[in-house]
Design goal:
By secondary structure, this protein is an alpha/beta fold. The protein is 33% helix and 21% strand. Helix 6 runs antiparallel to helix 7. The model is unreliable at 43-50, 191-212 and 317-321 (pLDDT under 50).
Length: 321
């Protein structure tokens, strides 16, 4: 079955970042890209109202030219279609288009100017990351990898979203035939001065507040699979164990007193994509970026996919413990 992916496009460097990520995600995946530009809706609150004579046709012509330019840059092996959607806001237009075009993901770019060329979220990204009913993929500033995706990193913790993150990670890694890296993020000191799990999803360290900075190997495999069983379910842990046995997955425990410190233990490749879950505050079927994931965006140099609560569905969410 063909998957449909929506790229929120602007004729800017941010738009090109989003388009490049869309191409990378679609490549070799029987996926169709829908490149969408938003035209402002005539409104008493619009910049020009009533519309000046010929304004509508001039805008439509310009948007069409920008879309043609964008589509010309899409490789021949990636089917793509351009769309102009009229809406009161960019975020609203992208959400409506995702439903109408039956898209399973919305792809956008992060604004320029972020720390170390990472992410700086504008109003559109912020709205989507707190309301979208489908995963939202964020391209870091300057993203140029042409695809396909080479590795997936699923970062999970003790909140219900672990099911969505691990479940989607396993599904996507199998579909793409790429390795999966399961990462448990441990925060040793909480902001309130105690130790334990971060409120938005870091797995709990030892009771005495001690813990590893980063570990790999058999012991880590067992520990991370135990976390998957505890925070997701045994079914997903068994599937992850099978991938580990076949050499299609790896595990890592990264710890630190802050998110930045813990994330510093991770190495990245140009073809990586990270999967993170929504906050515990998210309504089922909706996306809500939590504080830990927001902090991660400051340091992650590769694309990040944020998953709505309950995204993987009841079959994956079944627990036998």
């Amino acid at each position: 079955m063909t998957r449909h992916l929506l790229v929120g496009y602007l004729a800017t460097s941010t738009g090109r970042d989003a388009l490049n990520l869309g191409i990378a995600l679609a490549r070799e995946q029987d996926a169709h890209l829908h490149v969408v530009m938003i035209a402002p809706q005539d409104s008493a609150y619009a910049g020009i109202y009533p519309p000046a004579g010929g304004y509508g046709s001039i805008l439509e012509e310009q948007l069409g030219a920008w879309l043609d330019e964008a589509l010309a840059g899409v490789p021949d092996d990636v089917p793509a279609t351009g769309h102009v959607v009229t809406a009161e806001s960019d975020a609203e237009g992208l959400l409506v288009a995702a439903v109408q075009l039956d898209c399973s993901m919305i792809i956008i770019g992060g604004r320029r100017g972020g720390l170390l060329r990472r992410y700086r979220l504008g109003s559109v990204a912020t709205t989507l990351l707190h309301t979208a009913p489908v995963p939202v993929a964020l391209a870091p500033a300057g993203y140029e990898h042409g695809g396909p995706v080479g590795r997936l990193t699923a970062m999970f913790g003790p909140r219900p979203g672990a099911v969505d993150v691990v479940g989607l990670g396993i599904q996507a890694a199998r579909r793409r035939s790429v390795p999966l890296r399961l990462v448990s993020l441990l925060l040793l000191d909480r902001p309130d001065g105690g130790s334990g799990a971060d409120p938005d999803g870091g797995a709990a360290p030892a009771a005495d507040g001690s813990g590893p900075d980063a570990r790999t190997g058999a012991e880590t495999d067992e520990d991370v699979l135990a976390y998957v069983t505890q925070y997701a379910n045994r079914r997903l842990a068994d599937e992850a164990a099978e991938m580990l046995d076949r050499g299609r997955a790896s595990t890592l425990i990264a710890s630190g007193r802050t998110v930045d410190h813990a994330m510093a233990h991770l190495e990245w490749q140009p073809d990586d994509v990270v999967i993170v879950g929504s906050s515990r505050l998210a309504a089922r079927g909706r996306l809500f970026l939590g504080s830990t994931a927001a902090k991660m965006l400051r340091t992650v140099p590769v694309p990040v996919v944020v998953v709505p609560a309950g995204h993987t569905g009841p079959a994956t969410a079944e627990s036998d413990h």
